[in-house]
Amino acid sequence: MNSLPLEVLARLLLGRWSLGGAAFSGWLNAHHDEIATRFRRETETVWLEDRDGVVRAHFLVGWDSIAAGEPATGLEKQSLHAEAMRRVTLLRGLFPDRSGYGCQGYGHRILPTDYDDTTKAAIRPENLPPDWAVEVNATALALAKWDGRLSDWEVFVARSWSRRQAISELLLGLRKALEAHFRDRKKRLTVQARLNLSAWEALRDALNSKIALPKQAVDPWGFISEDRQEKAQQRDKSEKLLQQFALSPYRGLLREQGELMKGLVNFLNQAWPYLFLDYRSKENEAASRQVVTRYVADKGQHMVKPDLTLHNLSDFVSHFPAMQAEFRGLFATRFASGELAEQERRERKEADAAMLLWQAYLDQPQVYMADPLGQIARIWAMTMRDAGNRLDQGFCELAHDGIVGRRLRRPVEWNGAPALWLWLDSGNVEFLATGPTRIKALLSSAIGEMCRSARQRLALERQWQTVVVVPTFGGKRVGKWVWVIPLHRILYGGEGASPFSWLDAMQYPVADEMWMQTDVPAWDTPEFRLANDLFAAIGAVQVLIAQLGDWLPLAMQGDSDAGVLEAYADRHVVAWLGVIRSLIERLTEVSGRFHALPPDQQSDRPYLMVAVSNIVDNLAHWFPAAMVSGHTRLSVSDLEQRLSTWTEHGDKLLGVYAALLLDAQESAAT
User: Fold this and answer.
1) How many Å apart are CA 475 and CA 427, to the nearest integer?
2) Largest CA distance in the chain
3) Is residue 446 within 8 Å of 390, Cβ to Cβ?
4) Out of 72, 495, 514, 529, which could bridge 76 as a Cys pair, Cβ 3.0 to 4.6 Å?
5) CA–CA gap between residue 148 and residue 215 (Å, rounded)
6) What does the alpha-carbon distance between residue 469 and residue 432 come to, in Å, rounded to a whole number?
7) What is the distance between the alpha carbons of residues 619 and 625, in angstroms, rounded to a whole number?
8) Is the torsion defined by CA of 92, 97, 99, 105 positive or negative?
9) Omega before 411 cis (within 30°)?
């Protein structure tokens, strides 16, 4: 019971329980508390909820997972998911007679997100097969797939190339059919009559099966396969390293191909009913729509909204560059000079053209256009000019409130996607706190209200997926950070407040090379550096407060394990105290700077005097004397008291920062 590793014990208990027997069920019940206690202590589970046949682990996430205070990356999300599933899998083995298993993590939820990777609902037992069974099944599937794999990389590249050419041919056919449709004043044929529908169906069916990597990329024993789900916490290190070494060069290609094909397959599956609509007259359109809708229903399907087909096609088009780059990086040397570049140019051209024409077809299928692509491109350009003019008008309105704004020529991307960069300046320090609200109002009135159609929204999203705002104070930036607002929250946000709105006030760091592109000057004086250091320390404490606020309420739960809570606090107290100590040192430095000045110069620094006065008046609220002196342990009860105090008085820290900025500006001016 106590000598076996917890994972081994869980496998053993699950295996024994599957054999049945009332005696073993009685043994499980008799040792329930002992098993539960060990599970809680070894998995940092504060509360093991066991009711209505479902057992759930309410566990703590380590401080190192969220100390950075930034949204989780893909790898971090995978780690959180893995930690959650580890606990669920252990519960499945340790308590094998339950009807469901779940968990919830705490301490990492410092930002609102639409999905929490640590939340697992009541997963049914049959959906949690033993790990060894999953491994055996994966090995068996890989072995079964071996004989069907391609012989070498030449065949793999040739088949991938053939599929890319088939996609290009389909896009070319769709472009020509839609162009012919718009050039026909009388709309005498449906779009499907103008294209090769059998090629459409053949490609759709072909894309439902992936092109497996050749035998040279995997092993003949079934251990290494692109389809295996890797579980880092259970896989032997040598095996994990072997798999990563063998497959890591192709992971990017497989990922981008998957994203690319997903969008295209969805489009091919959902868009075909719209090809059969008859637009010779309103009566013909209505009649054909009824026939098509009935036909689709007889097949057990339904016509999706037209905007969804456009979204899938746009998603497909947006993934083309990344897939092309991955393919080129691996296989460029296998092609004749210029061959690969020509195919890439053709793919981008036909994909962009098909998307533009499909959007116009959904928007105004009855319209006559002599030059469809040219006219649509001009309409998109007009949309972008209109958006730019509206932004300029919005900047003029902000100027009445002392806020100066303009669009930046560079950079033009954020995280590899097209972005609109704005520069907004104010001499009022409050703008650094209220800016996101003003900016969202500007964007909503300038471009949100103009997007009445899918065409306008698509044009803007293709040009600007994200709005990046560089705020400055007195003409210069005060730190290396920006506000980032996804455009879709402006275009699709609606009238009500979004639960994600405060994400827009998050400060995202910007690399030096990107700052150089903005040409926005920076304040670089000792006073501004002191203010920035204080602001960074305040931000770290705010992250700590958010993390404590997420998990400390568990201490009030009647069934919580106080030992787990205290052990967690003991494990992280050094890191927490380091964050707090950094803020205390910055506050001490501010006070020291002021008191080091001669008395006659102190009176010339009124804002610095205000900052120091705020520190003196509130230091006892922020930190007890023992914490300031460095002698404190920070138990769970201490943390509960600190959280309440910080929540009540924390805003005064930002007042100190604001006063330092004003002092820094005056000092720079003199």
Assistant:
1) 8
2) 91
3) yes
4) 72
5) 9
6) 11
7) 9
8) negative
9) yes
| Letter string b/e over residues 266-288, b meaning 16 or more CB atoms within 10 A of that residue's CB | bbbebbbbbbbbbbeeeeebeeb
How many Å separate Cα 60 from the centre of its chain?
22
- CA 508, 511, 515: angle at the middle one, nearest 5? 95
User: How are beta strands 508-509 and 54-60 bridged, if at all?
Assistant: unpaired
**Three-state secondary structure readout of 372-403:** HHHHHHHHHHHHHHHHHHHHHHHHHHHHCCCE
Which CB contacts under 8 angstroms, 24+ apart, belong to 410-413? 410/517, 410/518, 410/519, 411/468, 411/514, 411/517, 411/518
Contacts 24+ apart (CB under 8 A), 149-152: 149/212, 149/213, 149/214, 149/215, 149/218, 150/211, 150/212, 150/213, 150/214, 150/215, 151/214, 151/215, 152/214, 152/215, 152/216
Q: Which of 60, 109, 43 is nearest to 550 (CA)?
A: 109
- For 568-607, the DSSP string reads HHHHHHHHHHHHHHHHHHHHHHHHHHHHTS-HHHHTT-HH
How many CA atoms lie less than 13 Å away from 616 in the CB half-sphere? 10
The b-or-e profile of 128-166 (16+ CB within 10 A means b, else e) is bebbeebbeebeeebeebbeebbeebeebbeeebebbee
Q: What angle do CA 460, 466, 467 make, to 5 degrees?
A: 95
State the sign of the Cα–Cα–Cα–Cα dihedral 238, 239, 240, 244. Answer: positive
What angle separates helix 153-183 from helix 320-331, to the nearest 10 degrees? Answer: 150
Q: What's the rounded Cα separation, in Å, for the pair 380 and 386? A: 10
Please tell me whether residue 234 adopts helix, strand or coil conformation.
coil
Mean pLDDT throughout 139-161? Answer: 88
Helix axis angle, 372-399 to 454-463, nearest 10°? 70
Query: In the structure encoding, which two tokens stand for residue 109, read together?
Result: 């939820």
Please give the structure tokens belonging to residue 480.
């290396």
Q: How many CA atoms lie within 13 A of 203 on its CB side?
A: 25
Token look-up 């820094």 returns 664
- Give the burial class of 232: count Cβ atoms within 10 A of its Cβ; 0-12 exposed, 13-18 middle, 19 or more buried: exposed
Instruction: Enter the tokens of residue 116.
Output: 């929490």
CB 526 within 8 A of CB 481: no
Is 406:391 a contact under the CB 8 Å cutoff? no
Which residues have CB under 8 Å from 216's CB, separation 6+?
Answer: 152, 153
Instruction: State the pTM of this model.
Output: 0.71
Rounded-to-integer distance, Cα 413 and Cα 328, Å? 22
Q: Is the pLDDT assigned to residue 12 strictly greater than 70?
A: yes
Centre a 10 Å sphere on the Cβ of residue 255 and count the other Cβ atoms it contains. 14
- Residue range 255-267, pLDDT digits in tens: 899 999 999 999 9
Q: Which two tokens stand for residue 380?
A: 């998109």
CA distances from 601 to 523, 593, 606, 666 (A): 22, 12, 10, 13
From CA 158, how far away is CA 172, in angstroms rounded? Answer: 21
Please report, for residues 49, 585, 627, 628, 635, the alpha-carbon distance to residue 578 in angstroms, rounded to integers and kept in the order given. Answer: 34, 10, 11, 12, 15
328-379, pLDDT tens digit by residue?
Answer: 999 999 999 899 999 999 999 999 999 999 999 999 999 999 999 999 989 8
Buried-state track 183-211, b at ≥16 Cβ within 10 A, e below 16? eeeebeebbbebbebeebeebbeebeeeb
DSSP label at residue 477? B
pLDDT band at 540 (very low <50, low <70, confident <90, very high): confident
d(CA 223, CA 244): 12
